[in-house]
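Re: the pair you flagged

First of the two:
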Amino acid sequence: ADLSDLCIAANYIIANDLDEAGAQRIRVLPMALDEEHWCRRERNDDRITVGWTGSPGMMRYLAANRAGLIVAQQRHPEVRFCIHSGAYPEMDDFKFDYLPFVPAGEPEVVSQFDIGLIPLPDEHFSRGKSPIKVLQYFSLGVAVIGQPVGATGELMVDETNSLFIGPNRKWEDAITLLVKNAALRRQIAAAGQQQFQQHHTARHIFPRFLELLRG
């Protein structure tokens, strides 16, 4: 890092690590998605869908929290649970629809969700993550439930754009709240969509990226 003319970090956790590593010029530039590609698709299914999307390597975070998901599933058998990933999840005790990863097909899949899950443990690696799935959910109007660990809290800024899991709220209770309260679900989804449109679109971020390179 100390040999670089410029270090660009996605969040302040990584920026602080770069500073400790000796980087001289550090700028934080939030992650972005192409809003032309990440826009809501029409749905043909009226069922409420709770979903998770992510790489096979991150599936362990979901698996670690499946006890609460199983309780939510028992409470709400009418709700559809989906997992979208590049490998089939080995979770025999949890019922879900598996949606395999197809390149460039993520927006169509995630558009099926009403509620998106962000499970994260409080550990060094996860504290530095800016999960792209948060922006995917936000961009498509999916209400977010999750753990705003570390830099994730720069995206899930408060409980207007997401519901937090913590000592005072379990996964099953958060899911029940949004399943039963459609108005709250739409309100949280709209706030997340606004967060994306104001701060994380390619149209907004790319000119700043070019300015940093020119500077």
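Second of the two:
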Amino acid sequence: SILALTPILAHTGHETTAAALTWTLYALAKASHVQRKLRASLHELAASEPSPPHTLAHLPSAEPSPDFYPRILTLPYLDACVRESLRLHAPVTSTMRVAAPADAIPLAAPLRDRTGALRTHVAVAAGDIITVPLQAMHRARSVWGEDAREFRPERWMGEEEEKEGGRGAQGLWGGIMTFGSGNVVNGNRSCIGYRFALNEYVLVSSSVE
């Protein structure tokens, strides 16, 4: 359950993973059709084992095949649910950067400021703190469509190039900024342990009944 798993993850110092898992369970609880589809996919994987356990939760009592855990980590619908949850419910909702030199940041579309002037750039001075709104970027209808605020894992079930960043923000993973950018063009500050966190998150998610 959420109450049982979250303190365990938080106690080991992975509070963002615990938060991500909590929001994933919340999203699944509100989308019973997604929950059923994911459970069926996981049970199908468990049943494919030479000595299949009753459920994935009982797997430790069995002897999994050498490739079993890699197959969990690449299970298509579980992968889609993970991506969609981390898009919609990013554990870190924003981050901040400090401008080194003065600069002008171009806007995607012109806007009028409170004086009525039309602006195409935002001027920043050296030392200004800039907030990067990760959650807002992940929920932008202009990027993700009119259903941007809906939990719909199927949006990740398209072509491989779409899953790996063909849409969404330019990020380290999945076309989203949950783990930072990792790109030298727009700042290479990113989560150095993102792959470990993902593996932990996916494996725990797969064992929840």
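The chain is about 45% helix and 10% strand.

-B.
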